[in-house]
Structure formats: C-alpha cells, structure tokens
Design a protein that fits this description.
Layout (H helix, E strand, L loop, with lengths): L1 H17 L7 H11 L5 H13 L4 E3 L7 E3 L6 E5 L5 E4 L4 H12 L9 E4 L2 H4 L2
Parallel strand pairs: 3-5
Antiparallel strand pairs: 1-2, 3-4
The structure holds zinc ion (ZN) and manganese (II) ion.
C-alpha cells in the first residue's frame, strides 16, 4: 500500500513535467501536483525529482542560477534562457552529433554527452 502511494506520487510528478514545456522549478511542480495529491510535501517532490533525474526520465537544468529547473523531455536538446524574463525555451538544432565528432577529433576524446546553453533576449523581450 505504501509503495503504491509512492509510485502514484512519482507518476503524477512525471505527468506534470511531461505536460509542460515551461521548464518549471520544483516549487511550481509542487503546486501543480498538490491539485491531484493534496497531502504531498515539498520534500517528497524534491526527492522524486532527484530520483526521476537519476533514472534518466527527466533532466535537471542548472543554468548556474539560484534554483534548478526541470525538463520532462529526457533526450538531450539545447536551451535558450532569456536574460530579461527568465523563460527557458527548447532549441531544436541538428548539430549535436557534429559537435561531439568535433570534440572527438579535437583531442581523441571519447565523448559521452555534452551540454550547451544560449543566453540573450527572447522575441517578446527583444523589441524595446
Ligand atoms: Zn524574455
Ligand atoms: Mn527542454
């Protein structure tokens, strides 16, 4: 019974993340999950986000800032973060393999993954 409750909590957290492309914080996820699981705690949400990240079901995005954001899209892709509004957008750029090949060629490295983020102003914020 206890295990069933745990996996139900994790399912709802995963569903919330899969249904948004806003790359939310843990607090936002918590507010959404509470609508379906009213007695869940913020600590439980954090713990499950960690477990889902470790399992490769979701991605944690750090952006070197105060708090992490989470991404329900688990396959590697690039992001653009707006310096003005703080929103994080997906970038679909077909250059991942090429960049990893270049890194291999640059030093004979065995490349397993890479991260790349872009910063600037989004279209909504750029026109002032
Ligand atoms: Zn913006
Ligand atoms: Mn993303």
């Amino acid at each position: 019974m206890k295990n069933r409750r745990k996996s139900r909590q994790r399912e709802v957290i995963l569903k919330v993340l899969r249904n948004t492309d806003s790359h939310p914080t843990a607090d936002w996820v918590y507010e959404q999950v509470k609508k379906e699981v009213p007695n869940i705690s913020l600590g439980t949400v954090y713990r499950n986000l960690r477990l889902l990240t470790e399992a490769g079901e979701i991605m944690e995005l750090e952006f070197g800032s105060t708090y992490s954001r989470f991404d329900g899209r688990a396959e590697n892709h690039y992001h653009f973060r707006c310096d003005v509004c703080g929103r994080v957008f997906d970038l679909d750029m077909p250059v991942m393999e090429e960049l990893e090949d270049r890194a291999r060629q640059a030093g004979g490295f065995e490349v397993s993954r890479h991260r790349l983020e872009f910063y600037g102003r989004c279209p909504d914020c750029a026109g002032d």
